[in-house]
Amino acid sequence: MALSILSERLDKIREAGLYRRLRSVDRTTPQVHVDGRAVLLFCSNNYLGLAEHPALAQAAAEAALQYGASSAASRLVSGNQPLHDLLETKVAVWKGTEAALIFNSGYAANTGIIAALAGRGDIIFSDRLNHASIIDGALLSGARLVRYPHNDIQALASLLEQHQTNGLRLIVSDGVFSMDGDIAPLAALADLAEQHQALLMVDDAHAGGVLGQQGRGAVELFGLTGRVAVQMGTFGKALGSYGAYAACSGQVREYLINKARSLIFSTSLPPAVLAASCAAVDLVQSDEGERLRQQLADNGQLLRSLLQSAGCAVPEGTTPIVPLLVGDAEATVVFSSRLLEEGLFVQGIRPPTVPVGTSRLRCTLMASHTPDQIRLAAATIIRTGKELGVF
Ligand SMILES: Cc1ncc(COP(=O)(O)O)c(C=O)c1O
Q1: Is residue 51's pLDDT more than 90?
Q2: Residue pLDDT, tens place only, 231-267
Q3: What is the DSSP secondary-structure string of 81-130?
């Protein structure tokens, strides 16, 4: 009986064109095998190509041999190892903040941080297109959730006027929006937060390593370090490793250690992952990091201009995320499947990840893509889109 309810729900997901399945992808390099077939990869967040960098693999291997495979406990029990402290010091220096705190993933960071900062009697103001982990953190917190229209500063200002509390008010925004690739108006958000005595938290998952001086992220890009209470960032995207961090003041770090349940009640990251992240933080600040960022920016520009000049619905942008709006969920799945048959792996993104009617192909660039691979990808998208009548 209970299982037949699940079957019915799965049927509904299929009927709505929202069925998902796992594909087997062997690497995160531009050329990969998907379910055994050789294709070009254009949907990884391995923006700088660090996931396959020898320095990270070497650091991970050495740490595993020296310290073992697991931390085997939460950091508050016996799982706080020297590499956690080292990584936090490196992140704080890199980001220019007083302190940093490592989390097990971006999802764990957002749910843990938001539910720690806000609770009953508090209000969270969240951009409509924020990542699901922010929404989940807000729901978990028990605070009132007020969602404002995407990047709409006027609307947020009037919502802040309208929703008063004696408790805390927290504004949360993605720095770079994961499915659209656009950048939040962070300076205006920081002004509003100060005017209304609210805390500002920025999720820099897609900006860390990619934007700003030495890849410090979107907050640094706008010169706002010190005006943002928490910068959340991840190691699993441009930094080529796994896990996440909060870059913040010493006081906020101390508070999170005492309140963030995803930190308190979960086994901490293993030594190999921490060591790879340490190597990544060093790399993004090096000349090599600078060169990779430039290559990534050039690659993004090339794909955008090729698609735009063929009339595709691709917005302007400066990030490695290039969305190609299709609209209908079913049509997006068909488009993505046809591209895979043609040797190009670009994931179709559908609700609930994006709002209904805005399904899209989300192309992501890596510094390791060659111009020829990008030209081939653009030509394949344009030809297939025309055949399917999408353009
Ligand atoms: C904006 C944003 N925040 C948070 C996360 C979660 O990070 P993680 O994959 O490390 O859990 C993601 C993506 O996965 C993301 O795109």
Answers
A1: yes
A2: 999 999 999 999 999 999 999 999 999 999 999 999 9
A3: -HHHHHHHHHHHHHHT-SEEEEESSHHHHHHHHHHHH--TT-EEEEETT-
Strand partners, 125: 146, 171
Q: Is 208 in the pocket of ligand 1 (CB under 6 A)?
A: no
Q: Is 205's C-beta closer than 6 angstroms to any atom of ligand 1?
A: yes
Q: Residue 201: pLDDT band by 50, 70, 90 thresholds?
A: very high
Nearest residue by C-alpha to atom 9 in ligand 1:
106
Question: Is 178 one of the annotated active-site residues of the chain?
Answer: yes
Distance CA 42, CA 39 (A): 9
Measured by CA distance, the residue closest to atom 8 of ligand 1 is: 106
Q: Is the dihedral of CA 273, 275, 279, 282 positive or negative?
A: positive
Of the pLDDT bands very low, low, confident and very high (cuts 50, 70, 90), residue 391 is confident
pTM over 0.85: yes
Q: How many residues does the chain have?
A: 391
Cβ neighbors of 118 (< 8 A, separation 6 or more) are 124, 138, 141, 143, 168, 170
Is 206 designated active site? Answer: yes
Cα 362 to ligand 1 centre (Å): 15
Q: What is the mean pLDDT of residues 331-355?
A: 95
pLDDT at 390 over 90: no
Q: Report the Cα–Cα distance between both ends of the chain, in Å, rounded.
A: 45
Distances (CA, A) of 190 to 12, 112, 162, 359: 42, 22, 19, 31
Q: Which amino acid is at 259?
A: K
